[in-house]
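User: I'm new to structure prediction. If I give you an amino acid sequence, what do you actually give back? Let's try with this one:
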Amino acid sequence: TFGARFAHIARVSTTAMPLDEVTLLKQEIAVLRAQIEWLKKQLFGSGKSETLDRAQLLLKLGELEKLAASVEAPKQTITYERPVSREKRPLPAESFAHLPVQERVVIEPALVQAEPEAYERIGEERTFEVDVVPPKLFKREIIRPKYRRKADREQPPVVAPAPKRAVAGGYASAGLLAWIALSKYVDHAPLYRLEQMSARWGATLPRQSMADWIGITAGWLEPIYRRMKAELLAGGYVQADETPVRCNDPDEKRGGTTQGWLWVISRPGGDVVFDWRLSRRHGELTSLLNDYKGLLQSDGYEAYPAFAREREGVVWLGCWAHARRKFFEAAAERPRTAQRILQLIARLYRLERQWDEQAVGARRAALRQEHFARPLYWLLKLTIALQARALPKSGLGQACGYLLGHWEPLTAHLRHSATRLDNNLVENAIRPSAIGKKNWLFIGHPDAGQRSAIIYSLVISCQRHGKDPFAYLKDVLTRLPCMTNQDDLAALTPARWSP
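Assistant: Good question. You get back a string of structure tokens that encode the predicted 3D arrangement of the chain. For your 499 residues, that looks like this:
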């Protein structure tokens, strides 16, 4: 336990000891102080401590801090220089310049109102205020007149066919379907909350009806989703990740939840495709990627390198952000050494940004081989030396082990020009689902997971391509029921769609 290890350090520190043992104990103290910092984050951070016994952890934290203070190692201080952003925030007049003016209010001075003939207008002062119109439900009445032939009244009446809609026979329009889907998957509002809010819009929308509409929406969008996935796997470069999501499983006792997973594949500048699976087994990745050949970039989860080893033509690439993150989290143990490693990794990113501005294209691989050689040489040398001195289970020991263990996939970027150094783009794509599941807590049924994956894929791809998700969904859900040729779906993917 933390307390026992600290007590041992406190006892032996009062007696003479060899220099090597002093160094070892200092390392242990640094490791344990880092663990204390982690414990503080769990207690006072972003709410993770809800599942912990706060009273017991606070008591333990106090004991650990007292023990650590009695054997405090010499502290090292380090100063981080962060450049001050010179970018100025836009003025309100600039931020809201695109808003339409729906109302003008002219305020005449009281003196002018009293004697209008005594004054002449020489100018004006203008300002503005921003107002809002709350959401409001309205009906669109569809009228289909009936006719009969005057000369032959025995013939049946003539009436125009009913327009084809996403919800056949229902009252939900394409705009309402798009709004409900956007509220849940972009604004992260659970359906029960939308039911409560809809009363303020003019009429209550039943929660079960909205759940049915989500399923109908996903059903119409699924052909576009499949096309996006096929195009993504045919591109030759895929970034992949996965995130856990709880789901309500009727087979669980007492209506409990079980663990599901949203697997995500993407590539820079391309679409984002989610896929729902009930496990994180290696076979799930195999069925997701099928016969994919090309570059596969991910974190260190073993399923990805295993897939690359088993498939000819697949090259696995590592993520430098994961390697950097481990050194950043363990920087308190050896600030100077960790900072030097972080500086070397930062140099790689600075070069990448320069090449992005220069649009070097296919020359990036050659530039990487030329300019990455020196920082990578010192990074490898410094990490090997640090690993020999750090405790294997310490934060720095684990950071060194991760970097050296993934050195080959991390340096494989030198042979390719299309890759990014990290998986941050696909991790950013996952973030909306991570926020959403904190609000709606779990998916209502295992079969409903794929519906969420389909809608997430479409709306997040719209955001990546700079398209308005609401305008996209409303337009697509209006057009799809009227389409007879599924070959025209290419124009409806978020990357190609235009209003």
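You can read the tokens as a compact description of the fold. Here is one thing that stands out. Residues 1-17, 47-51 have pLDDT under 50 and may be disordered.
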